[in-house]
Amino acid sequence: MYDFKKLSDKELYVICKKWGAEVLAARRKFAGLLPEVWRREKFENERGASWLKRRGFTCLYEFAAKLAGMSRDQVDLVVRVERRLEDKPVLREALVSGKISVNKLARVVSISTAENQRDILEKVETLSKSALEVFVHDFKRADENFNGLQMPKYNQIVVPGHGLKLDEDIENELLQMQEKGLDVNGLLRELLKERKAKLEARKKVVAEKQEPECEDRAIIGYPAKRYVPAEVRKITKEEFGEKCSVAGCSKKSENLHHEKPFAIAQSHNPDNLKPLCKGHHELAHAGFS
């Protein structure tokens, strides 16, 4: 029994976190047993008996609800995922042993095969549920003829066709130029080339400002500041916009990722920065950049 009057806020939180983690672990293990309970119930029903009724339960849903507080949808998910993992023993073992939650395994079951199951398990163990969703999406998009074997390479993902939206006045002007025999593609190509050159020149200036500061702080024994300066953020936004820089990802960027780790680079050179959404940022730090 706890003496709540003597417990600090921090101590109360630590206790709640400890018991919460144990509850989740126990629930995962319980969920892993449900497919076997379902099989025994089915087998005994075929013989005219009932495994569950002999223990005071009308069905598997009542059994799971009363013993572990699981909903009907959660029970169905466990049974459905376990069936799809019958030919993938490594992943199935992770489910029935309670090592991995059914919610995480459900996200990867569509890309899992007997050949890649160990690689998939590694991803499931290290990534959050939201990052797993991004990984599975990229996995399928990496190859039009998806066969479940090839891991995605985030710098080689093919972007599906998108319609380009132009303002009506711009579209009309370009059409008129094209009708007059002018090389519209060449014009646009030159404009894009000019934009890229201007960005590179500005990035070089911004990068040069970063280096002396890092050197000065190194001399006096202080590491470089982790906060990305406003001018670096601005030039990065001008280059990539407000969306994730991974090809084909339309999610809003939430993090500026240092391709060469900041702990090593000790600078915020814009050439080393890429804006990423939360999922791709986690994937990048897990080594899938």
Task: Tell how many strands the DSSP assignment holds.
Answer: 2
The domain tally reads 2
* Helical coverage, percent range: 55-70%
Gross morphology is elongated
- Strand order across the largest sheet: 1-2
Report the sheet with the most strands, covering strand number, pairing sense and barrel closure: 2 strands, antiparallel
**Cα distance, first to last residue?**
49 Å
Helical stretch tally? 12
SSE string: HHHHHHHHHHEHEH
**Estimated share of beta-strand residues:** under 5%
Query: What's the overall average pLDDT, rounded?
Result: 85
Low-confidence parts lasting 5 or more residues at pLDDT below 50? 145-151, 154-159
Helix/strand/pairing category = mainly alpha
Based on CA atoms alone, the radius of gyration comes out at: 27 Å
How would you describe this protein?
This protein is 58% helix and 3% strand. The chain is mainly α. The chain is elongated, with a radius of gyration of 27 Å. The two termini are 49 Å apart. The protein has a two-stranded antiparallel ribbon with strand order 1-2.
